[in-house]
Amino acid sequence: MSIQAPRGFNDILPGEQYGWRDSYRWQRLEEIFREVARLYGYQELRPPMVEYVDLFIHGVGATTDIVTKEMFNITPRGDDPDARRMAMRPEFTAGLVRAWLENGLYNNPQPTKIFAYGPAFRYENVQKGRFRGFHQLDVEVFGAQDPAVDAEVIKLGLDVVARLGLTGLVVSVNSIGCPQCRPRYRQALQDHFRPHLGELCEDCNTRFEKNPLRLLDCKRDADHPAQRTAPVTLDYLCDDCRRHWEGLLSHLAAMGIPYQIDTRIVRGLDYYTKTVFEVLHPKLGAQSALWGGGRYDGLIEIVGGKPTPGVGFGMGMERVLMVLEEEGLTAPFADRPRLDVFVATLGEAARPVGLKLLYALRDAGLSADIDYLGRSLKAQMKYAGKQNSRYVVILGEDEVRQGVASVKHMDEGTQESVPLDQIISHLRRAEA
Question: What is the reported pTM?
């Protein structure tokens, strides 16, 4: 029987040979994200990976692909007193809103600026850059309407990837209006697409009545002539949305962020209002969006709170790491942690002394390891080299009798005898 990971799920593994799946690269990306988020004044919130389906039906949208096609639903046991259906989270924003409300974070000084990261799950058609189990870096701001905040979250994401050396990105922005001006735009879309319904896919026909903005998000009919001539949201914005839109563009220009206006961006979730954006990289082809987000001023009210503005983004970790690999950007991962000391022992008398030294090294804050397979000294040295150890402390029975050990500096190839009770201080001096 051959057991493999489910299709669309990936193992993240220790070792450079695994490319974008190298766990150290993931750790570095997470570290950089945390550092940048904290520089911007964001604090971490860790929501559960499972939420009630109702949260996504009402928050994300009952007609979205996520809810109708892509969620990994969980059916509780029959004897579960709380028998409502649950689902693995397909995205972060709705769960973070729920946590903000349930835990009364609105009572804290506002706005609330939070970040989160971790796995999410969608039953996708697996292809390059699109998986069923994927990971996101997420930031959200609750309680601020200022378009400067929209610009801030865009800049935050750009600062993260800039630390990784990633350039050549395209920031695409649009505004999809608000509940006051969107009805006119919805009507304009329906008037435009109605004569073409017989030529459009089944999904488009379903969306036509329930959420015509999603017609612009269709991948199957993206090249249909009616798509290219469809009305654009910017022509239907109310005065408030237009001021917000112009404010966003002004802030992006002031920050020196190049952008393009793409009126086809509507995002795939129903909660968006006003600003929507995507950051693209051409190396990913059809899945060129590394991250995207926007404003959702009605979501908190939909989930059960008071009317509260919000804005944020979700960045695909897999996609960022895949692009870094394709661009050959390995410098951010060059400072890979090394094993400080490998303790090589030879003979029964040396073994307990080596183990005692091993734990003393670790207690002193030095990473250390020892052979557990009974290998020869030559094999232990070879293994220490593969572990990229800085030093090897060699203990044989003669060294134990003399109260010393041989310390080999692996980078320099030098070796010297050091009293056992001075090993740690010797290594610290060597590193100074």
Answer: 0.91
